[in-house]
Design goal:
Largest sheet: 8 strands, mixed, barrel
Oligomer: single chain
Number of domains: 2
Order of helices and strands: EEHEEEHEEEEHEEHHEEEHEEE
CATH superfamily of the largest domain: Diaminopimelate Epimerase, Chain A, domain 1
CATH topology of the largest domain: Diaminopimelate Epimerase, Chain A, domain 1
Shape: globular
Strand content: 35-45%
Helix content: 10-25%
Number of helices: 6
Distance between the termini: 7 Å
Radius of gyration: 18 Å
Length: 291
């Protein structure tokens, strides 16, 4: 099996969020789940994508953390399709279909960047009781102050459910030190992947700065999270921060010294709300896995 290491949501190596990408040999089926978990653990990235080629511009991708399979992973998808472009299997201008456990998603291949369709957005719940708010913010190593934060946390999914957690300032965002064990338990209880904390305290041209934590899946912090920023884009729409047809530029990974730029687009002008997330990626290494 061919593998690549790809830095997603960045224009330079050692930036963005690294992902493992494994391309199955032509005609081969996926290895066992155990083998894919062990491979992801061996590669040691937050997610590794396993790609099965189904036909021209049609792929089936499964995503594994070092602990378990997840339905979808944004940065590993961006990495996968940039890797496929690097290998000459797709080209600029192609529209591809990615069959995932979260549904069949459209992928638009640009010149050095990829935009991926998210699953249908879902507003799952709002965290609004004083007890629940205090618990969440305490677990995340900060305090809830309604005089500074007027927005409420929400559970939203565009493929994977996460808690969107607002903070007042970039200083508050950077100062967070979550209790990872408590956050794992909280995530399991809420049925979410983790917490996507953000602040609208941003410079001109940037919609938000954010940090993402998913220790339940052995990811203490992630430098760029496509699905979570798709969900955040929908959160912005629900809270009238952006228009029904709009674009966002979101910065993540600064606290990890891996600054990432995540672009998103939303079109809620019709009966269905469509969200795309994307960015650039760089291939760092490639080789063979002998299994």
């Amino acid at each position: 099996m061919k593998f690549l290491i790809v830095d997603a949501f960045t224009e330079t190596t050692f930036g963005g969020n690294p992902a493992g990408v494994v391309l199955l040999p032509e005609g081969a089926d996926f290895p066992s789940d155990e083998t894919m978990v062990k491979t992801a653990a061996e590669l040691r990235y937050s997610e590794t994508a396993f790609i099965k080629v189904l036909g021209d511009n049609e792929f089936n991708i499964r995503y594994f953390t070092p602990a378990a399979e997840v339905d979808l992973c944004g940065h590993a998808t961006i990495g996968s399709f940039c890797a496929l472009q690097h290998l000459g299997l797709i080209k600029t201008g192609d529209t591809c279909v990615n069959h995932t456990c979260a549904g069949d998603l459209e992928i638009n291949v640009g010149d050095g960047f990829v935009m991926m369709e998210m699953a249908t957005p879902q507003d799952l719940a709002t965290i609004d009781t004083p007890e629940a708010l205090e618990e969440l913010y305490n677990v995340m190593g900060t305090k809830y102050d309604s005089s500074k934060v007027t927005l409420l946390p929400k559970l939203i999914s565009t493929g994977l459910p996460d808690i969107m957690m607002p903070l007042a300032t970039q200083a508050d965002l950077n100062a967070m030190e979550p209790d990872m064990k408590a956050l794992s338990a909280l995530s399991e209880r809420y049925g979410v992947t983790g917490v996507h904390a953000f602040t609208l305290d941003s410079e001109e041209g940037v919609t938000a700065h954010c940090r993402n934590f998913a220790p339940l899946y052995d990811i203490d912090e992630e430098a760029a999270t496509g699905t979570s920023n798709g969900a955040l884009t929908y959160y912005f729409l629900l809270n009238k921060i952006i228009k029904p047809v709009d674009k966002c530029k979101i910065i993540q990974g600064e606290s990890m010294d891996r600054p990432s730029i995540i672009l998103s687009e939303i079109d809620a002008s019709g009966a269905d709300c469509k969200i795309k997330v994307g960015g650039k990626a760089v291939v760092l290494a490639e080789g063979e896995i002998n299994i």
